Amino acid sequence: MMQVNQTLRYLLTQCTNNGKYNYTEYDHGHYCLNKVYEGDKTVIHGPALCTNNRNTPYLSIDRVRCTRCLLWPPQAAAWPTRHRKYGWPDSATVDRIVSNGCDVVGVAHHQCRQHEWMGKCQWRLSFSRAEIVLINSLMALQQVVYHLLRYFIKTEHFLTNYSDNSDADTLNNYHIKILMLWACELKPRSCWTDNLNLVRICVELLHTLSVWLTDTRCPHYFINNCNLLDNSFNVKNMAHKLMSVNKENLSTWVLKNYIVQCALLCPVHILRLFDDVSSSVKLQNAVSEIVQWRLNTSLYDLWLSFFRSDFIITLAVSKCSLTVRSCVYWMNELTKIDKRLSVYFSAVALLHIARKISRNGFSDDNMGILSTVLGNECWNLLPLHNTETNTSEVFELLQKSAVKYLTIYRQLEARDFGSVATIFTTDFEALYAYKRGDYQRRLQLSAQIVHNTLFYAVRMPDILTFPEFIQLLDDDIVSLTALTLIVDPECREDVCISQLTLSLYLMTQCQLKLHHAVMSLAQTLHYIKVTQRRCPPARTLEPLTLKFTERKVFLTTWR
Questions:
Q1: What are 159-173's pLDDT values in tens digits?
Q2: Which of 77, 162, 265, 307 is deepest in the core (most CB within 10 A)?
Q3: What pLDDT shows up at residue 82?
Q4: Domain residue extents for the chain
Q5: How many helices (H) and strands (E) does the chain have?
Q6: What pLDDT digit, counting tens, does each position of 451-460 carry?
């Protein structure tokens, strides 16, 4: 790896209007330390701190302290212009990568980590941004090969046991990534498209890796004359073991350790197909069933990933107050991932500002964030925020705009995931209508959701109860949420409420406020009973809300 020492030379401040940077020069001589705080639940993987955080229950988090390098580094100056016989990556991809620059991450060279000074002050050039672009540009077969090689090296114990943090004495996933990138550049496209044989390709690449280990060389993909292997690596037996892999034994391994492992994730009837794969036809049929099942479930998994993303975005905005700079960053990065997420973030940001001005009044900083989120629309707010008396009007306008964005997000969600979940697009509109006292409209929207989800819906979205969303909720729901968190402050991830339960509660409230007949409330009580039977016991707020709603109906009907 290319190691560097960082001196504190310049402070960069990005201009929001043109994206350029202003700089202020520091005094020379102060080196940045590469050490970061290590918590009790933190495991170090190279430059990354890996944490399992209860506040983000769906994902483990790798945190890498880095310094953005806005220009392509001179150490890799030859990479953009080197001759590529087979045209991979293409010039557009190369230009995109170079314009993105690289990063410098805090980790010392493995031979220097015990050194008193270098162990604390060395940093490494990281090309992760470039590598992500390249990996995402691979053909489907190339991605399968890459994943299979990583899995093979890991399960066959070629990789370091990270329990001692000695990621330097043998192979790691980065070597496999480098192997794959070189293969994609040096092999013609026909190798990946003609006479396809997954096992043959993997055997060839494992043999290439064996030669690298024998010669103690692993050429860095971006930096010339940079070897990722040295004599400290334990490669004596590894090279021989890799060279002994052939099509026959790798085929057996792929079936038993790769395909069957995939089958274990499938329903039992698919797994049983592998009890007899004595012929190629039977094996092909069994694998086809895995593929078909995965195609059928992948959309649902993607939908779950979006909800997890919603949770993490809302948690981050709620805990870390937004600035113009962070808002620009959020919107740019989320747009790169998926434009739908930037729509959701815009809604959360508007609710975040509404929450802030309800406590502290309107400020120029808030206007800067609004101009980032709303663009030219934000100037509609300018006449309103000139006087303190108009703060409440700005608050209402922000809530209304947030509901508009949330409704757009629900519409996109229903369009893309409506085949795997029952998604009504009017839940936030209904919340806002109730908050505004439009009980007839709220009743109409809630009844529509209840009648269409109660007996037929299997999956439906949840509504989060973070502080940003609390302002849209009924006071009783806010109180129930607060009580739940007082009893168990660590259960934040469970404190959400489904569209059905919230719609039942608000439908009941509207019926009571509009003085509906007892027979109408009796039907609602039946709906509540049905929903209670379907409610997962782990959902803390859900059964509490249903019980509270049921209690309100009983108190009214027995008066």
A1: 544 333 344 456 788
A2: 307
A3: 95
A4: 1-136, 138-263, 321-417, 419-559
A5: 23, 11
A6: 888 777 678 8
* Cβ 17 vs Cβ 2: under 8 Å: no
Element (H, E) at 192: helix 190-193
Element (H, E) at 68: strand 66-69
Q: Are 188 and 294 in contact (CB under 8 A)?
A: no
Distances (CA, A) of 329 to 15, 309, 326, 489: 12, 16, 5, 30
Q: Which two tokens stand for residue 373?
A: 């989120």
The residues, any chain, with a CB within 8 Å of residue 101's CB and separated by 6 or more, are 68, 69, 70, 71, 72, 73, 129
3-state secondary structure of 362: coil
Taking the chain, what is the end-to-end CA distance rounded to the nearest angstrom?
77
Cis ω on the peptide bond leading into residue 74 (within 30° of 0)?
A: no
User: Hey, which residues does 4 pair with through a beta bridge?
Assistant: 123
Please work out, in degrees rounded to the nearest 5, the angle formed at the alpha carbon of residue 504 by the alpha carbons of 502 and 505.
65
Exposed, middle or buried, 229 (CB in 10 Å: 0-12/13-18/19+)? middle
Q: What is the DSSP string of 458-511?
A: S---EEE-SHHHHTTS-HHHHHHHHHHHHH-TT-GGG-EEEHHHHHHHHHHHHH
Structure-token pair, residue 44: 């170090």
**DSSP letter (8 states) at residue 88:** -
Within 10 Å of residue 487's Cβ, how many Cβ atoms?
Answer: 9
Residue 179: how many CB atoms within 10 A of its CB?
21
pLDDT per position as a tens digit, 231-277: 766 676 788 889 999 999 999 999 999 999 989 989 999 999 999 98
d(CA 332, CA 326): 10
pLDDT of residue 116: 57
Q: How far apart are CA 215 and CA 95, in angstroms?
A: 33
Rounded CA separation 554/105 (Å)? 62
Three-class secondary structure of residue 347 per DSSP: helix
What tokens were used for 470?
């609390």
Whether the predicted pLDDT of 119 surpasses 60: no
Q: Among 222, 215, 244, 242, which residue's Cα sits nearest to residue 177?
A: 222
Query: In DSSP terms, which residues pair with 43 in a beta bridge?
Result: 50
| Nearest alpha-carbon partner for 524 in 502, 497, 553, 491 | 553
* Nearest alpha carbon to residue 485 among 541, 551, 544, 537: 541
β-bridge pairing 462-464 and 10-14 = unpaired
Do 203 and 153 form a contact (C-beta atoms < 8 A)? Answer: no
**Radius of gyration for the alpha carbons in the chain, expressed in angstroms and rounded:** 29
Q: Residues 92, 98, 99, CA angle at the centre, nearest 5°?
A: 90
Contact 250, 203 (CB under 8 A): yes
Question: Which residues are registered as beta bridge partners of 92?
Answer: none
